[in-house]
Amino acid sequence: xxxxxxxxxxxxxxxxxxxxxxxxxxxxxxxxxxxxxxxxxxxxxxxxxxxxxxxxxxxxxxxxxxxxxxxxxxxxxxxxxxxxxxxxxxxxxxxxxxxxxxxxxxxxxxxxxxxxxxxxxxxxxxxxxxxxxxxxxxxxxxxxxxxxxxxxxxxxxxxxxxxxxxxxxxxxxxxxxxxxxxxxxxxxxxxxxxxxxxxxxxxxxxxxxxxxxxxxxxxxxxxxxxxxxxxxxxxxxxxxxxxxxxxxxxxxxxxxxxxxxxxxxxxxxxxxxxxxxxxxxxxxxxxxxxxxxxxxxxxxxxxxxxxxxxxxxxxxxxxxxxxxxxxxxxxxxxxxxxxx
Length: 340
What we know:
Layout: H1 24-38, H2 45-54, H3 64-81, E1 88-94, E2 97-104, E3 129-136, E4 158-160, E5 162-176, E6 180-187, E7 193-195, E8 199-208, E9 212-220, E10 225-227, E11 237-241, H4 243-252, E12 265-271, E13 273-276, E14 280-288, E15 291-301, E16 305-309, E17 313-316, E18 319-325, E19 329-334
Parallel strand pairs: 7-19
Antiparallel strand pairs: 1-2, 1-3, 4-18, 5-6, 5-8, 8-15, 9-14, 9-17, 10-15, 11-12, 11-15, 13-14, 16-19, 17-18
Helix pairs in contact: 1-2, 1-3
């Protein structure tokens, strides 16, 4: 899997837990308070703060107790860091144009404007956006959100905290001497041609860099492809890949053709609700712990032609900036000779 993200650190279980000390947010908040009291300059403080911020759900955490503990920890952090007593003055430029200038003090901290939109007219290919400190010594936190229309062909894979890849395998029934009829999987590489009626196994691999809740993955069907299953729901699970599987995936660049090998997985699974829609396959997960996960399903190539398989997209439903997409694939389907 590709991509990078700032380091985080946390304590506690990612999923179900039975004691307060096992809960991720509460245990991590308690550990942060201990670090601040004993060693305020410890190197783990910033990664711990980043993990707590990343695991918010809007303006709160998963429950009122977690929210209370996190607020107490951040209150201690603000006291120790002294950030609330500092003054900050800054300017935002788009090219040579001044977009905004603000001065933030302890008195207007919660009232000062904090979101600025740069007009489209100021943005060109060579426009640089500069955020410049003009006064004060307070730490400066900022983030940038951009929306654009891409003409890239094919569309490349991308992600933020969540990375997704998609692979296709051609399924063929092969007769063997000892095992009878077995299902043979052959990787479908870019530019390969299928025949109408071929069954294709879709393998989606998710690289989750954190513990996330309520995720949606949507895989747009190539034109002329249909799901083999027609009834939504049913039992389906995402399985966590073992470290050996991850190393092989990175080395070989393709998932294993033997999905049944027990060595490939850690034994952890997550239930997936599947919906077979007209234009896409929708996969819902209520929780996805940190790690690399895999889910497979089968489609059938039906209509001949050359098509684009648009990227599969995954995102946290309530934190849309946590998202990732696969690359675009080109597929070709030919008529079977017996039908020509």
